[in-house]
Amino acid sequence: MKETIRIASGQGFWGDLPEAPGRQVEGGPIDYLMLDYLAEVTMSIMQKQKARDPKSGYAHDFVPLMKQILPACIERDIKVIANAGGVNVAGCAEAIGDVARQLGLNGKLRIGIVTGDDILNRIDDLLARGIELRNMETDEPLATVCDRIQSANAYLGAQPIVDALSKGAQVVITGRATDTGLTLAPMIHEFGWAPDDWDKLAAGTIAGHIIECGAQCSGGNCQYEWQSIPDLAGVGFPIAEASADGTFVITKHEKTGGRINLPSIKEQLVYEMGDPRTYITPDCIADFTTIQLAEGGTDRVRAFGIKGRPATDSLKVSISYSAGYKAVGTLVYAWPGAYEKAEAAGEILRARLDRLGLRFDQILTEYVGANATHGPLAGSPSNDLAEVQLRFGVRGNDHGEIERFTKQIAPLILTGPPAVTGFAGGRPKVEEIVAYWPALIPKSEISPVVDVLDV
Length: 455
What we know:
Number of strands: 19
Helix content: 25-40%
Strand content: 25-35%
Distance between the termini: 27 Å
Shape: globular
Largest sheet: 10 strands, mixed
């Protein structure tokens, strides 16, 4: 059994810095590369892609990335864990297998695939058996929107990934696994942690929480003295240096940009934290109030003393559904009186929509540069502002009415207040609104499936 392992974060979301995974592989010793691609809305996007093309439905960025790094990963025995599979894990694995064969790596790669999270085709059966999948925020039963559901995926924990690793997988591809489970799984696998060793599982979960958003904990998007953070252009992504006793150090490769210190780690800890005493995952409940941190040198923060509690008997389900349409248009007004002009334009537009008899579920007017970010907290906007962007949006269920709205933005240039500048992008587009429905499902209803493919 290893005493320490190094788990590197390479992607914090689908669309993150493309060069980061390669830099993690080439920048120094690591044992695992963790790539987190999925967010709640991502699953619905992938489901739509798969509906158009059965071979799609996964993070296609993952394929050229693996073509770049796979030879080095195999040579150095770096295992890759990614939830890039989306709603087509098998298709993603097949694409990676094709890449391996193109690279002449036949017989040198085992790909683990984890499925069982996608319950879209089971919704009717679950509802018929009294599993209501009530909205965790509103307590509404899912039946109220079941005719508009686009995707439904349970959050799987670390154990299926552990199973794939134990079967010799060098690349593990999952669908909707928890962000933290991607990091926790290697620790369970390497250190042999028991399923009820709650303190260690909680420690691994918190390590995963810290590095799941990539460089957000190593200087990116960091509020504390951000002006002094060195070389953000070459920011280093984080590495969890984990020990068998449940302690870990967050660090990054030497000679990379960014900064890892107590403030950067603390900022990431409070990200999507919720109740600090009860951070619930499929694997355990982690108590953030027990975390102890100490700086252990340049770009090294040690975490210890973490406590955990038994896992619940439920899994969270991420459901997306169609919730109508929206369109957003913008105009930029210049000094003098930029804010006054933008405000008047917004009022004129509302009056014209009213005269046309257009009714929407919501109309939103924002004045970017004056108060859009902070709202009432910004106080009274000044007319000394050099420029203000009017951002005007509507939402509703009638596609046709939203389309009629889109034709009302451009006319304001010549039929409204003066000094519109920077108009670009043409007529606003009507876009479908995808809403999020969080729910709980008994763990007994979800059966993860782990397969390992030899390439």
